[in-house]
Amino acid sequence: MAGRDIMVVGASSGGVEALTTVVSGLPHDFSAAVFVVLHVPARGDSLLPQILSRAGKLPAEHARDNEPVQKGRIYVAPPDFQLLLQDRVMRLVRGPRENNHRPAVDPTLRTAARVYGPRVVGVVLSGALDDGTAGMVAVKRRGGIAVVQDPKDALFPDMPRSVMEAIDIDYCLPKAELASLLVRLSHESVAVDVVPPVPEDLQKEAAIEAVEMETLENEERPGTPSVFGCPECGGVLWELQDGGSLRFRCRVGHAFGADGLLAAQSEGLDVALWTAFRTLEENAALARRIAIRARESQRTASARMFEKRAQRAERQAQVIRRALLNTKNDFPVEPPSKS
């Protein structure tokens, strides 16, 4: 028998407030290791370990590669690294981004489920879009416990709501009640000798996240090829169904939930439109300059031709400008993290 001693907590926008509330209620003799993944910018320092250490009784620190896991500590995923769990140790890899993030919640949840099975408690707090959903599906498949912050209590309800739509969760509570639940769960015993074997697709995805070349070079992949290209690298995305969730992963490992993929495509479209707008403006400016030189040289026909080209480019640029200014963002924008 073992206890539920592996707790993975994921959050994004609005997550710092929820995290500090949860951590403040955990006792100094908490009998589990806590792994925290918060979406943070790839560049710059994260102060989240200091914030969490001040908020509660448990010491918090950034996870270190190959560091042994100890109970009664909080390990925070550092910027620009995926935090993966292996047997008794943590791994940090600059692997593929998932749901447009590194660190992302799904890789930590998924690798925890793969190694620790029913000992895992997954917790998804406030955040935009759907990171954490696929990872929580893996937690449930391996006999773990799925917990979400009540969407009505979350500043950004999308992440917990997405989990609730994909699986039958075990607990949905406001942030103020989560710490007492985690303490109670940490005292539960689970039978680890009757856990079913790790599904093959979960093994493969964990290997892809760890950038294991043998798996990356294997042509057999989880899911089926889709008609969509990866917004990160342009490769073909493979479509996977996890319970009620739809998600995608490319050959080299970039992964997206359906909402995350749509958001990434929208961002790519925005970049393409601004590029086209800038190119047409430059084309019009160059054509007018050539037309002026042509008139100075008494080449009237040539000047008229380049003036028409400039007018055509300006009209096209105005069409794109109107499209850019009239486009409404259908996805919540995550404010820059202060952690």
Helix/strand layout:
Elements: E1 2-3, E2 6-11, H1 15-24, E3 33-38, H2 48-55, E4 60-62, E5 74-76, E6 82-86, E7 89-93, H3 105-116, E8 120-124, H4 133-141, E9 145-149, H5 158-166, E10 171-173, H6 178-186, E11 189-190, H7 200-209, H8 213-216, E12 224-229, E13 236-242, E14 245-250, E15 255-257, H9 258-296, H10 300-326
Parallel strand pairs: 2-3, 2-8, 3-5, 4-5, 8-9, 9-10
Antiparallel strand pairs: 1-11, 6-7, 12-13, 13-14, 14-15
Helix pairs in contact: 1-2, 3-4, 3-7, 4-5, 9-10
Largest sheet, in brief, is: 7 strands, parallel
Average pLDDT confidence is: 91
Topology as a string of helices (H) and strands (E): EEHEHEEEEHEHEHEHEHHEEEEHH
Helix content: 40-55%
CATH superfamily of the largest domain: Methylesterase CheB, C-terminal domain
Here the CATH topology of the largest domain equals Rossmann fold
Shape: elongated
SS element count, helices: 10
Examine the secondary-structure arrangement and name the CATH architecture of the largest domain. 3-Layer(aba) Sandwich
Supply Rg: 25 Å
End-to-end CA span: 38 Å
The counted number of beta strands is: 15
Strand content: 15-25%
Biggest sheet strand order reads: 4-5-3-2-8-9-10
Low-confidence stretches: 330-339
Under CATH at level 1, the class of the largest domain stands as Alpha Beta
Compute the number of structural domains.
2
Structure class: alpha/beta
